[in-house]
Design goal:
heterodimer; A: 280 residues; alpha/beta; Rossmann fold; 2 domains; six-stranded mixed beta sheet; 36% helix; globular; B: 357 residues; ABC transporter involved in vitamin B12 uptake, BtuC; three-stranded antiparallel beta sheet; 13 helices
Chain lengths: 280, 357
C-alpha cells in the first residue's frame, strides 16, 4: 500500500491563519473510485485541492508516483493528474470547443500545437459530456449545468490517469447528476483512478469503490462503502441520527435520515448542558 | 486524420489553419483571421513607412526610395533616405511594435484593458528617469535613454512591491500603478518647473514623445530590445491564454504560473522601457493597439504578434499625420497619439457603459 501513486503525508492544510487539517495521512488506492464525504467545512475540498497541488500545504507533502508533487515540472503533473475545480473563473469571449481544446495544453509543444491525438481527445471529451452541440456557444452565456459539463469536458480532454473532481454534480439536475456519475464510473472501469468530493452520501455509496469519511480535518474512516457506512458513523460525522439500509437498486448502503421527532429528541439529548442552562 | 498537409478547419466559431507533417509529429494551428489581419497590418505599416520615406522637405519618387533602399541610389538620395529619414521610420515601426506587444502582455496579465504600461506608471517612471538625467545630471542622448530604462525598471519594481500582499492581485496592481503614476507625474512637473527655460523646453518635447531627430543609436536600442524580447514574448504568449483563466485552472493544466507570469511581466517591462528610451513616453499606442487588434481579429484577446503589428501600423500612420496632415512644423508624434487616445478612451468607456446597461 505504501506505493500508491497518489498519497499525502503528514499534511497540515491552512488558509491564511485558519488551519483546516493537521497531520493528515491519506492514500488514494490505485485504480479506485474514491469518494470523499463529510460535513461542510470538514476539509474535504481542501484536501482535494492539495492533492492536485493547487493549495500548497503548510507542512507535509503530497507524493505522486513516489516523488514529491512539488518537485515535478507543472506540465509533467498535468499529464498524470487532472482536476475539475469547484468554481473556475469563466473567461469571457471564448467558445466551448476552444475552452475544451485548452485542456490539451500539457500535451502540446511550440511546434506540436494540434496533433491528431489532440483533435481526437477534444472530440471524445465533448461527446462523452454531451456538449458537442454547444461547441460554438460562448462559455459565459451557458447555464450553470451546461458550464459544469464543459469544464468536465476540459478535464477529460487532458486524458490523465488520475482525475480529481470537486463536487462534479453541483448545478446539475437529477438526470445530469447521474450521467456525470455514470461517466466517472465508466472512466474508472477503463482503468483511471477517480477521486471525487460528493455531498450526497447515497451517490457516494452507490458509485465509490472506496469512501474517505472526514470530519474537522480528520479522516474517520476509509474503506468500501459496505464496510464503513454505518448509522453510528453517520451520526458521529454529521450529528444526525439515521438508518442505513440496503439500496434496493444496487445493494449498496443507503442512508435514510431519521424523522423530525427522533432528530429533535437526539439533539436535546446530545446537548443537555446548553439545554439546562437556557432553561434556567 | 493522420495525413500530412495544410487544411482549414472551422472550430469554435473561428476558422483555423492546421498544418501537419506526416504522423502529426509537428503541427501548427493558426487562427486564420489573425493571420490575415496580421499580414494586412504589416502591409499597412510598410506602405506608410515607404510614404514617410518619400515625403518631406525634399519629395522623392517612390522608385528612387526603393532603389536607394536596395543600395542602388545616388549619393544625394542615399543621404536623405539613409541618414535623415530611415532611422525615424524604423524607430516608428519598432517602437510601435514594442508598445503594442508590451500593451497586450500587461492588459492580459492584469485582465484589465486599462492595465497597459502607460496607465500603470511604467512610461511615467521612464520619463522620470530621463528627466533626472536631462535636468539634474545635464546628460544627453544615450544617457537619457539609460535613465529612461532605469527609471522604468525601478518604477516597475516599486509598483510590484507596493501592490504585493500575499501575491499580487491584478486589480490592485493597476490601482497601485495609477497611484504611483500620479506621484511621479507631479515629480516630473516639479523637475521641469525648477529648470531653465531652454532645458524645460527640450524636456517637455521629450515628454510628449517624438521620433524627430532620432538616429541609428536609438534604432539599435529599440531594435535590440525587440530582437531579444519579442521571441520570449511569442514563446510565452500561449501562457497568456491559460493565465487568463485564473491561477488555479492554469496550474491544473500544467502552466508554470509563477515563472511564466514573472517572465512575461519582465518582458513587458523591458519592451516598454526600450520603446520609451528610444522615443519618449508616447501615449495611447500600448493602450489601444491590443484592443484594436482584438476587435479586428475577432478573438477573445489579441495575440502578441497582431498587437505588435497593430502598434507599428498605428504609430507609422500617426507619424505621417504629425508630419503632413496637421499644420505646424514637424509635430511630435506624441501629440497625435495622445489626441487619438483621448477620443479612443472616451469611446471605450461610452461603449462599455452601454454594453453593461
Amino acid at each position: 500500500m505504501s506505493d500508491a501513486r497518489l498519497r499525502a503525508e503528514a499534511l497540515t492544510l491552512a488558509y491564511d491563519d485558519r488551519v483546516v487539517a493537521r497531520d493528515l495521512d491519506v492514500q488514494i488506492t490505485d485504480g479506485s473510485f474514491t469518494v470523499i464525504v463529510g460535513p461542510n467545512a470538514c476539509g474535504k475540498s481542501t484536501l482535494l485541492r492539495s492533492l492536485a497541488r493547487v493549495l500548497k500545504p503548510r507542512s507535509g507533502a503530497v507524493h505522486l508516483d513516489g516523488q514529491a508533487i512539488a518537485s515535478y515540472p507543472s506540465r509533467e503533473v498535468a499529464r498524470r493528474l487532472g482536476m475539475l475545480s469547484q468554481s473556475p473563473v469563466v473567461p469571457g469571449g471564448i467558445v466551448v470547443e476552444e475552452l475544451v481544446a485548452r485542456g490539451r495544453f500539457a500535451h502540446q509543444r511550440l511546434l506540436r500545437q494540434w496533433s491528431p491525438e489532440d483533435e481526437a481527445a477534444v472530440a471524445d471529451a465533448m461527446r462523452q459530456t454531451e456538449v458537442a452541440e454547444l461547441a460554438d456557444r460562448f462559455v459565459d452565456e451557458l447555464s450553470g449545468g451546461q458550464r459544469q459539463r464543459v469544464w468536465l469536458a476540459m478535464a477529460l480532454a487532458q486524458q490523465t490517469p488520475i482525475l480529481l473532481l470537486d463536487e462534479p454534480t453541483t448545478f446539475l439536475d437529477l438526470s445530469h447528476q447521474f450521467e456525470v456519475l455514470d461517466l466517472c464510473a465508466e472512466l474508472h472501469e477503463q482503468g483511471r483512478t477517480i477521486v471525487a468530493v460528493l455531498h450526497d452520501l447515497n451517490h457516494a455509496c452507490r458509485y465509490a469503490t472506496e469512501l474517505i469519511v472526514m470530519r474537522d480535518g480528520v479522516v474517520l474512516a476509509q474503506g468500501a462503502p459496505t464496510e464503513v457506512m454505518t448509522a453510528e458513523l453517520v451520526e458521529a460525522v454529521f450529528g444526525m441520527p439515521c438508518r442505513v439500509m440496503s439500496d434496493p437498486e444496487t445493494d449498496t448502503p443507503m442512508i435514510v435520515p431519521a424523522g423530525r421527532q427522533r432528530r429533535r429528541a437526539a439533539r436535546a439529548g446530545a446537548t443537555p448542558a446548553t439545554a439546562s442552562r437556557s432553561g434556567a | 486524420m493522420n495525413a500530412a498537409g495544410v487544411r482549414l478547419r472551422r472550430s469554435g466559431g473561428a476558422t483555423r489553419l492546421v498544418i501537419r507533417t506526416r504522423a502529426g509529429r509537428l503541427s501548427l494551428r493558426v487562427h486564420l483571421r489573425a493571420l490575415l489581419v496580421g499580414a494586412g497590418l504589416l502591409v499597412v505599416a510598410l506602405s506608410v513607412s515607404l510614404v514617410n520615406l518619400s515625403t518631406g522637405d525634399f519629395p522623392l519618387p517612390l522608385r528612387e526610395v526603393l532603389r536607394s533602399l536596395l543600395g542602388q541610389g545616388d549619393p544625394g538620395t542615399d543621404f536623405i533616405v539613409h541618414e535623415l529619414r530611415l532611422p525615424r521610420v524604423l524607430i516608428t515601426v519598432l517602437v510601435g511594435a514594442a508598445l503594442g506587444a508590451s500593451g497586450t502582455i500587461f492588459q492580459r496579465l492584469t485582465r484589465n484593458p486599462l492595465g497597459s504600461p502607460d496607465f500603470v506608471g511604467l512610461t511615467v517612471g521612464a520619463a522620470t528617469g530621463a528627466l533626472v538625467v536631462l535636468l539634474l545630471l545635464d546628460g544627453g542622448g544615450p544617457q537619457v535613454a539609460v535613465g529612461a530604462v532605469l527609471g522604468c525598471l525601478a518604477t516597475s519594481v516599486a509598483i510590484y512591491l507596493l501592490a504585493f500582499r500575499r501575491g499580487v492581485q491584478p486589480f490592485r496592481l493597476v490601482l497601485m500603478g495609477i497611484g504611483v503614476s500620479a506621484l511621479l507625474e507631479s515629480f516630473n512637473s516639479y523637475l521641469i518647473y525648477r529648470s531653465r527655460l531652454d532645458e524645460a523646453l527640450s524636456a517637455q518635447v521629450w515628454l510628449i514623445g517624438s521620433v524627430n531627430g532620432r538616429g541609428w543609436t536609438e534604432v539599435a536600442l529599440v531594435g535590440g530590445t525587440l530582437a531579444v524580447l519579442l521571441p520570449v514574448a511569442l514563446y510565452h504568449g500561449r501562457h497568456l491564454d491559460m493565465l487568463g483563466m485564473g491561477d488555479e485552472t492554469a496550474v491544473l493544466q500544467g502552466v508554470p504560473v509563477e515563472r511564466g507570469r514573472a517572465v512575461l511581466a519582465l518582458t513587458g517591462v523591458g519592451l516598454a522601457a526600450g520603446a520609451t528610451a528610444a522615443a519618449g513616453p508616447i501615449a495611447f499606442v500600448a493602450l489601444a493597439a491590443p484592443q484594436l487588434a482584438t476587435r479586428l481579429t475577432r478573438s477573445p484577446h489579441a495575440g502578441v504578434l497582431p498587437a505588435a503589428l497593430m502598434g507599428s501600423a498605428l504609430l507609422s500612420a500617426s507619424d505621417w499625420a504629425a508630419q503632413h496632415a496637421l499644420p505646424g512644423d514637424d509635430m511630435p508624434v506624441g501629440v497625435v497619439t495622445a489626441a487619438l487616445g483621448g477620443v479612443y478612451l472616451t469611446w471605450l468607456l461610452f461603449h462599455e457603459r452601454r454594453h453593461n446597461g
